[in-house]
Amino acid sequence: MAPTDWLPARLRAAWALTPDIRLLEIEPESPGALAAPGSHLGVAVMIGERPDTRSYSLIDSGADGLYRIAVKRLPDSRGGSAYMHGLEPGARLSISGPRNHFGLTLGRPGYLLVAGGIGITPLHAMALALHRSGARFRLLYAARTRQDLALADGLKARIGDRLETVTDDEGGRIDLDAAIADLAPGGEAYVCGPYRMMEAARRAWSASGRPVQALRFETFGTGGRHATEAFTVRIPRLSREIVVPRHQTMLEALEAAGVGMIHDCRRGECGLCTVKILETDGTVDHRDVFFSEAQKAANAQLCTCVSRVVGGGITIDTADRAG
């Protein structure tokens, strides 16, 4: 199946892993491609009466003909997770992929996997692949409570002591400095979790002096330094002023207003949806992992699929010429 194809599928089974995380087994109508570790699946969803798409990380390769995803219902959901939690077995779906912006490089002397909350999903697939290959790795998995450690029991049974878990309610925390220091020279780290976890990993990795390219990220695009709020986007060349509600991304608001946009991942990873910042009277909350910290500080561009503005609005330019 080519990454850009949309094909029919059905929801074969679904069950709760935690009170707010649901595992879904999706069976494509025709055999699908194997998913490389770190891949995600595109799913067509309905947000109210509006069709949209969402991407969900695959927790294994789909070698048995089923694609498995774990979806967390978010209190600040823009509608995708609520839709996925409302599906019943037998439901017809349209899917695309697998695609991969978070590929695992095999053959390194060591690996450090760090997951926060629902960020376990792509790292679950990576851990299984590394275990099968006999690689040296550790998976550090943090959540709020023991109950929130979705997939942990099954992983523990398969990879044993390579999985280490910590929870906030027990006062646990991942010691990133120590974990990075224990990583073999030439090893790589893969991180998926909340924005603050990724920022802490960036700082610890930078302080270690290891090569920047050996640290890889995936983000859910649902959190940043500031609370989510509505803001206004101005596009002088198009004579447009568009309000971005708190439950909608900037990319979604621009698309709904008829502004031509280019995009792919919708998770702040690929950089295709970036726009030029002309002026801002608020604070830009960069939530992507595409731009470096220096580029974010320069405030010249932002990824519209995840980044937002607080305390004011923003003036941008886009590639749209149709008006």
Automatic annotation (TrEMBL):
List, in alphabetical order, the Gene Ontology terms for molecular function in this entry.
2 iron, 2 sulfur cluster binding; oxidoreductase activity
The UniProt entry, under CDD domains, shows:
fer2, PDR_like
- Highest taxon of the lineage: Bacteria
A Pfam family annotated for this chain is: NAD_binding_1
Q: Which residues form the 2Fe-2S ferredoxin-type domain?
A: 229-322
**FAD-binding FR-type domain: residues covered:** 4-105
What name does UniProt use for this protein? Oxidoreductase
Q: Report the source organism.
A: Methylobacterium terricola
